[in-house]
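Dear colleagues,

I hope this message finds you well. In preparation for our joint manuscript, I am sending the MarR family transcriptional regulator (Pseudaminobacter soli) sequence together with its predicted structure, so that both groups work from identical material. I would be grateful if you could confirm receipt.
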Amino acid sequence: MPYKVNPDSFGFLVTDVSRLIRAEMDRRIGEAGLGLTAAEGRTLSHAARAGVVRQNVLAERMGVEAMTLSATLDRLEAQGLIERQPDPTDRRAKLVHITGKADEILERMAPISAALRADASLGMAPDDWDRLLDLLKTVRATLSAAKSELAAKESTPE
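The corresponding structure tokens are as follows:
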């Protein structure tokens, strides 16, 4: 008898919710007339969240290839929404940071995100939604700590 995969396991649920949120946010950003593609809006949000960050780190956090991100950053830079500067600790690396002009776009995106969160939480009591967010933060912290421990072990000579 073939192995039966649980479609409601943690990994599938998180992946499905992430995919659905991303698709809906992309659709709403596209309809909002912000002058951005969905990828540009996503990148701008992630850059704002990260603060000044190396381009390769931003790509990793977003789960995209560095070359894909580079093209998106080129377009955002041409619009004056981000700036890239050499990293003073590594001349080969570029630091990405948002500009004041990006703040205007991010402010216009905020109600779109808020409406999507409201739609996603329909049928849930506010306390349940808050508890869900707290639980997800715990999972994120646990997985991040495990990743850091593994990286530390791998970089320590035996």
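For the figure legend, we might mention the following. The first strand starts at residue 53 and ends at 54. The domain at 14-120 is CATH 1.10.10.10 (Arc Repressor Mutant, subunit A).

With kind regards,
E.M.
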